[in-house]
Model the fold of this input.
Amino acid sequence: METIKSDYLDEKLDQVRAKDFLKYRSGDLPTWCPGCGYFGIMDALYKACRELELKHEDICTVSGIGCSGRTPIFINSYGFHTLHGRSIPVATGLKLAREDLTVFAVAGDGDALGIGGGHLPHVARKNIDITFLLFDNSIYGLTKGQSSSTTPHEMKTNSHPVGNPDTPLNPIKLALAYGASFVARGYAGDPEGMKTIIKQGIQYKGFSFIQILTPCVTFDKTNRTWKNLKENVYNLTLHTQADNMETAMRAAENEPFGVGLFFQDKERLSYQDILRNLNS
Amino acid sequence: MKDINLVIEICGSAGEGTISAGEILSRFMSAQGYEIMSFDSYPAEIRGFGKCVAHTRISSDPIYSPGKLADVLIALNDIHSISQLSALKNKGILIYDSQPARPHEEDKSVLGWVDPGVISYGIPLTMLAQRAAGSARGRNMVGLGAIAAIFHMDKDGFTASIENRYAKKKKIVIDSNVNSFLEGFEWAGKHIEKIDSFSFEGVTMPLQKEKLIINGNQLVARAALDANLKFYAGYPITPATKIMEILSKELPGHGGTLLQTEDEIAAIGAVVGAGFGGIRAMTATSGPGFALMTEFTGLSVMAEVPAVIINSQRGGPSTGIPTKTEQSDFNAALSGGTGDCPRVVLAPTDTFSCYQATVLALYLAEKYQTLVVVLLDFFLSNSIRNIDIPEKPSESLLNANIAPLPEELENYQRYKITETGISPRAIPGTPGGIFFSTGLEHDEYGRPNYSDKGHLKMTEKRYKKYAGVLTEAPIPQISEFEGEMADIGVISWGSSAGAAREAVMLARKEGIKASSFSSMMLSPFPEKELIDFSDKCKKILVPELNYGGQFANFATHIIKRPLERLNFITGRPMASEDILEKMREM
Done:
């Protein structure tokens, strides 16, 4: 039996380590399936942190449960893997306690729109200064392929073998309707574009909502595949100035998926700034 | 010196000034140097004509319970007062409106329902209020004026208390209230032929230290501010809402933040988030909210993040009886949630100890990196006492986090196994302290780990911390029957402890050899002390305000012997009279 030379592996690892964005990568190996879109998201996240020169110890990533829940393990920063659907309230408390930290809240589609759907309107209307990353693969992956809140109507899943009877939610429209003041969409196949969006989200003082389209290569072979996504995304900047709610709503109609910044309210104050004004 | 020990009740319809009259009475009596305990009951509905009762016990000796029956009933509303007569002693005194605005039908006059032993004084409350201030609104003050005259209370002191109560109102409001009081005072002085023997005349109470007139909710908020609380998240729920309202005013000035959340899950979630961030955080709720918060109890314990929940119990289960008192969340507080999930549970036994319990809760949560539940109840939250101003917590109680030493940060293990079970905790922002926390079982670095040995080791670590907690627990309150084996030992908890203690004192006067035991610390429980106590008692009685005997069941497992139970779910606080009666039967 032929074995791979260890020299070869070391050499490859050295090459990988040489890329300095890896500084933000923790020593733990991701538990995601090969080909998962989440690897692209992580690359974008590492790069965004590097380009903004954030100190590791000043970042805290809060996640819920599901495949996305593991995200904080793979970032070389403080991290808190909480409960299903509850990354938003925990991140809210953390940010209000520690304004000096950059706080990411991470959630999957089941996490953010199903079990934790009740928190989204409130974090948006309060405008808590956290960067919310919705890893949207339109399926429950960790429990092996059941319908989620963004699974297309009539798609066959393990919980709906003859087709999903429910109509999917449109996360961008929801965020806009809830009054989120920074609403954007990224695509896992475009780490560079996603990096730009995440950087903007971190810098935005207020609640930044970023939906990230990503495939589940294991449990969705028909709908949100790499191939379908690639053919169905376009760059949004050509279509909208991101300052108009109506244009943003129209651009948020389903496929093809516009990727980029939908809406941003530059005037609005974050929750903590509002509190300071009210109490002064 | 003559002893004063009496209960005065004012009964009226919502909006008749029943509660404010009771408040003035207690403030006046406190200013006179008496101990007071007052407890109002009112309907859950805001509008309508529900029955309100202001209940005030006044005593020249320490008060342990509110007293079950009233000596004096002031009836502002006849219909409601008829149903309140059952709470009047059989030789009590009734003050009623002798000339109501509309004549009562035969069976709707409170006078028609009194027992023969009751002394009834008819005062034309409505007429006098009209005469004094041109409106029937002042009937409550006329009533106070009448009892002041009949029982020889200090007129000027009383007037000053009324002026104080309305100090922030317009002059016309102050005047009409004072005038109504004086009208009642003069009329009763002239027309009432006194046939009872109650009198405050000749009683001079020694001057006391400045007292704080306060309820449990107010004390919890005050204690939290004194104990360095910097974050509060909550959702409105009776009877805990007042804690949030006070902190919403006070926290910003103390450098803290208050967050009103969309539900109780978000409230405890935000508290856990803030606790992870390294500041002191808490929330307050009642049964239905606690049910939702149960989702986070496991995470706080598993990820070892400080969190404090104040649960002011009301009648349950489900929405239950929101404005009545009960002690039925004992089981939920001790074991609500899944898995092997040890947590700290404290239950103050009186108003004063609400302060102590809150300070201790915030300290223990921070030091032992765990969940602390404080069990209040509707009675403790809302009953008003005059207490000595509590001493502020010492510095050692204010900064309790055990931070990692520089050498420990070199290969930092957030969940390091230690002698005490406490692992040094880095706060986000600490260079070199980076770690990852999870609700999954984990290794010493916090990384997910599902091995059988690992799970056992970490579970043991989490349990081990509670031995330390027990060493810092307040000593149980024990009153032993001196010298001999007691015939009856009464074991109680929470707000029932005062009544139990009082019942034991009364029983001894009757020659019953009795002892009492209560512990503010419910989890971990001072088991050894309870066993020692039990060994010195022939019979054990556990009185509590729930149907199933939740604490009695718990105690049985510790003392391993049969015990007598006394359970009430009337919505009223525990009465020493009821415990005493049970003791006589035993």
About this structure: Chain B touches chain A at residues 230-231, 233, 252, 257, 259, 261-263, 265-267, 269-279, 281, 295-296, 299, 303, 428-440, 447-448 (CB under 8 Å). The first strand of chain B starts at residue 5 and ends at 13. DSSP finds 19 helices and 21 strands in chain B. The first helix of chain B runs from residue 18 to 31.
